[in-house]
Design goal:
This protein has 93 residues and is mainly alpha-helical. Helices cover 33% and strands 0% of the residues. The chain is built from 4 helices and no strands.
């Protein structure tokens, strides 16, 4: 999912991989905060968000980005680190 989603965590800190506080970034670049892929609330949030976007833009494709996550937030989360021990997962990508 988008690496440029740190602004979402201001309103929805429960879907972040690390605790806040979070702020709206004023600089350009890759930020450390990332969504928590181990949290069911993340998927409920994304299901609602993507559903709303699909209604507004009923195209065949929806670009979500996703190549900008630097992995720092995931490295700081014990649940994610445990999950990453799966032999099929070689890195964050």
């Amino acid at each position: 999912m988008p690496g440029h989603s740190s602004s979402w965590f201001v309103g929805y800190p429960e879907i972040a991989s690390t605790p806040g506080p979070f702020k709206i970034e004023e600089e350009w670049g890759v930020m450390d905060p990332a969504m928590d892929p181990m949290n069911e609330k993340t998927y409920k949030f994304l299901d609602t968000f993507i559903g709303e976007m699909a209604k507004l833009f009923p195209d065949h494709y929806f670009h979500i980005g996703g190549d900008e996550v630097n992995g720092k937030a995931w490295d700081a989360n014990p649940k994610i680190q445990e999950f990453k021990k799966d032999p099929q997962l070689q890195n964050e990508r």
